From TrEMBL:
Belongs to the MscS (TC 1.A.23) family. Keywords: Cell membrane, Membrane, Signal, Transmembrane, Transmembrane helix. It comes from Lutibacter oricola. This is MscS family membrane protein. Its main location: membrane. It is found in: Cell membrane. InterPro entries: LSM_dom_sf, MS_channel_C, MscS_beta-dom_sf, MscS_channel_2nd, MscS_channel_C_sf, MscS_channel_TM-2. Residues 408-492 form the Mechanosensitive ion channel MscS C-terminal domain. Residues 333-396 form the Mechanosensitive ion channel MscS domain.
Length: 532
């Protein structure tokens, strides 16, 4: 029996000896573990923890080591040793530090890192020189005095949180509510002043956007207040880790919201400017630019969110770049269309609402999107032209014309007397001069030639109305006036016909039109021309 007991005692002592943690500074993982392990409540040996501090000795080194741990605890920064390198020749390649160094929390606290000196790893001299400054920034002057005022029963713990800490959390919450309601009005007033200083005007849409922007900004101020005073409560590391993770997630979300609302405010101002310009393409740029800026804000916010969970955004960007190349190769047409969109907005070959001719497509430009441009033809059918194709085509922008040209031939019967031809030409000229939608200083009405079935009267006019619908209405009124003139003069318009001459029936006479060439009558008709 004695032998069995002796065996178990020896076995227990050997296991304890095997599990005993020793000071090890051979690599970043062991050096950081040595520092934190010997400052735990159940293994508290500050002298051993102080061996990780380079350039300090004795009590001074112990004080630096203790403050370093409190700095990490106060910010809720818990070291994940599964991610800390064990390579004694580890070299940082992230860009934060260069050489044999390892930064514990490169995004939250890049000032704290270990480096290789000789054959061992220590906290760097740069880190130790900033310990007091970092400690005072995290733990304000009232932290120690607050501890002295707490009675003994206040240190009783419930779920790792002491009673006085519960009270402190309640007080911080109440103060946060007061800060929110006070700063809400102040921030809105400041935003209004900035907005009026920038654009010198306001409207209901901008005011609504500013009110929505005010709330997240005030919440960011409240969270900053909480993150500043929360370390003063000296909460447990696990509790601090959860609280700071939640607060940091909220900060990221609120910043995303702030920038999204800021984009909305900026685009509202730009939309006001776009509406005041003649260029309608600027109006179409508003939704495209809004979607582009929104995508950038969400993407950057997503990368920031990844850092809160220990994921390096550099890795994500590298993976996205490789994936982006593969996607770009697989969707070359989409990329070409996107580049074509950019070129259209830079060159501005047309505006929204312009009547264009692009190849076989003729119609009005309705929208310009990321991938294609929508053109509506006169028969209301819709064409979707890829922007890459459209940017390389010869585009005839009739919307940029100063006038709309209209050219046609008026065919008169071959038996029309020359006097009536002259009268008809002069009458059409006068109609054009008096027409409200034509240029009276630039037009042509001439007897231009002999057609197969008619005498050709060339009419070349310019309409001042650029809208297609108004142009058709102007043509209508012009044509009606010409028809009335022809009716009053007794002039007929020709149509395709064939005349057969039969010589063996000389007593048969052809059909003769009852033309009247009385000069006084013709002058009276021309003088009475007016636009109704």
């Amino acid at each position: 029996m004695k032998k069995i007991i002796l065996f178990f005692l020896l076995l227990t002592s050997s296991l304890v000896a095997q599990n005993e943690v020793k000071v090890d500074l051979s690599n970043p993982n062991s050096a950081i573990y040595t520092h934190l392990y010997f400052l735990q409540s159940d293994s508290y040996e500050p002298a051993k923890a102080a061996t990780t501090i380079y350039g300090f000795q004795g009590k001074e080194a112990e004080e630096v080591a203790i403050k370093l741990k409190k700095i990490l605890d106060g910010k809720g920064l818990k070291v994940d040793f599964s991610k800390v390198p064990t390579n004694k020749m580890y070299s940082d390649t992230t860009g934060y530090k260069i050489g044999n160094r390892y930064v514990l929390f490169p995004y939250q606290m890049p000032e704290i890192y270990v480096e290789r000196v000789g054959g061992n790893w220590y906290y760097s001299s740069e880190t130790t020189s900033q310990v007091n400054e970092l400690y005072e920034s995290i733990y304000p002057w009232h932290t120690e005095k607050l501890q002295q005022l707490i009675p003994a029963f206040g240190h009783k713990k419930i779920f790792k949180i002491e009673l006085w800490q519960y009270l402190g959390l309640v007080v911080l919450t109440i103060i946060s509510f007061f800060i929110f309601f006070i700063f809400k009005k102040i921030v809105y007033y400041i935003l209004r002043k900035i907005q009026l200083w920038v654009v010198h005007k306001s409207n209901e849409r901008i005011d609504t956007a500013l009110k929505k922007l005010t709330r997240p900004i005030v919440l960011l101020i409240v969270i900053w207040f909480l993150k500043t005073l929360l370390p003063s409560l000296l909460l447990d590391l696990d509790v601090n880790t959860i609280l700071f993770l939640v607060l940091n997630i909220m900060v990221t979300v609120f910043w995303i919201y702030v920038f999204l609302k800021l984009v909305q405010v900026v685009m509202s101002v730009y939309e006001e400017f776009a509406e005041s310009t003649h260029n309608k393409l600027d109006d179409q740029l508003v939704p495209i630019l809004h979607n582009f800026l929104t995508g950038i804000v969400i993407f950057v916010g997503f990368l920031k969110m990844l850092t809160l969970f220990g994921i390096k955004p550099v890795t994500v960007i590298a993976g996205a770049s490789i994936g982006g190349i593969a996607v770009a190769l697989a969707s070359q047409d989409t990329v070409k269309n996107l580049i074509g969109t950019v070129m259209i907005f830079i060159d501005k070959p047309f505006h929204i609402g312009d009547w264009i001719e692009a190849g076989e497509v003729i119609g009005t430009v309705e929208t310009v999107g990321f991938r294609s441009t929508t053109v509506r033809a006169a028969d209301t059918s819709v064409y979707q032209i890829p922007n890459s194709t459209l940017s390389e085509m010869v585009v005839n922008n009739k919307g940029l014309r100063a006038y709309r040209r209209y050219t046609t031939n008026l065919g008169l019967r071959y038996d029309t007397p020359p006097e009536l031809i002259d009268a008809f030409v002069n009458g059409v000229r006068k109609i054009i001069e008096l027409h409200p939608a034509t240029r009276d200083e630039a037009f042509n009405v001439e007897f231009s030639g002999f057609g197969d079935s008619s005498l050709l009267i060339l009419m070349n006019v310019y309409f001042t109305e650029l809208d297609w619908n108004k142009e058709q209405a102007s043509k209508h009124s012009l044509h009606i006036a010409i028809l009335k003139l022809a009716k009053e003069l007794g002039v007929d318009f020709a149509f395709p016909s064939t005349t057969v001459m039969i010589e063996q029936f000389p007593e048969k006479k052809g059909l003769e039109m009852p033309y009247s060439t009385d000069e006084n009558r013709i002058k009276e008709i021309i003088n009475n021309i007016n636009q109704k």
